Amino acid sequence: MSSCSRVALVTGANKGIGFAIARDLCRQFSGDVVLTARDTARGRAAVQQLQAEGLSPRFHQLDIDDLQSIRALRDFLKKEYGGLNVLVNNAGIAFKLDDLTPFDIQAEVTLKTNFFGTRNVCTELLPIMKPHGRVVNISSLQGSKALENCSEDLQEKFRCETLTEEDLVDLMKKFVEDTKNEVHEREGWPNSAYGVSKLGVTVLSRILAQHLDEKRKADMILLNACCPGLVKTDMAGAHGSRTVEEGAETPVYLALLPPDATEPHGQLVHDKVIQNW
């Protein structure tokens, strides 16, 4: 057991917004901060960079596309800390607008990481969240835009308060399947794999928050999705208008909500404000 039993974890934290979130948590969170990255060398280099600034994060390898990697991290957290206090699901990918990869491949790859990978992390780590834990899923207003560009039938399904996690998984799988069969537009889907993946993350956050209310209400765990805005990162490129530090503000705010807070919960938050989507 670590001498400090509180722990915050950030996925995909070797660069960009994830790195900025890890840095802010090192400064503000009373406990250990675990920076994770798929690539061990890059992750360790990021840790060294923060150490050079006088901060002291820990490193653990994590590839959210690999269930064994997620479970190894879960076992590490249980052994070292007896659980987890803060989880920031930041790891994600996006194809560039001018990428010539066929759309069905983009859809499969993007959803594998952004939706299914994020869901797997939640499935494995939510059971070890400690009372007053905070979970932040990095989503995007691109998800809300994707919803607006869905057919009315799909919009109704995604907005349905009784949509189950299994129903949502089926919808995400259907999108990938429809792109493979080149019928996604006819079936009412938008032409944005990234947007659909983040719509999935936003809706998943609502569903998981409902699960927490049903099973662990007394633990007062808060789980939200948030949009960091269009940030100057490798992902957004020149289109970004915000610094990574500005992009980290809302995720860190949600990660550090005080222990007695009861909201936001199950919401999409942008610039610290709950969004109607």
Strand content: 5-15%
Distance between the termini: 42 Å
Listing every helix as H and every strand as E from the N terminus to the C terminus, the arrangement reads: EHEHEHEHEHHHHEHEE
Contiguous uncertain segments of 5+ residues: none
Compute the gyration radius: what is it? Answer: 18 Å
Class from helix and strand fractions: alpha/beta
User: Given the structure, what is the number of helices?
Assistant: 9
Strand order of the largest sheet: 3-2-1-4-5-6-7-8
In helices, the fraction of residues equals: 40-55%
Query: Kindly state the mean pLDDT as a whole number?
Result: 95
Biggest sheet, in brief?
Answer: 8 strands, mixed
Description:
This protein has 277 residues and is α/β, with parallel strands linked by helices. Helices cover 48% and strands 15% of the residues. Strands 3-2-1-4-5-6-7-8 form an eight-stranded mixed beta sheet, with helices on both faces. Helix 1 crosses helix 9 (244-255) and helix 3 (67-81) runs parallel beside helix 4. The longest helix has 24 residues, at 193-216. The chain is globular and about 55 Å long.
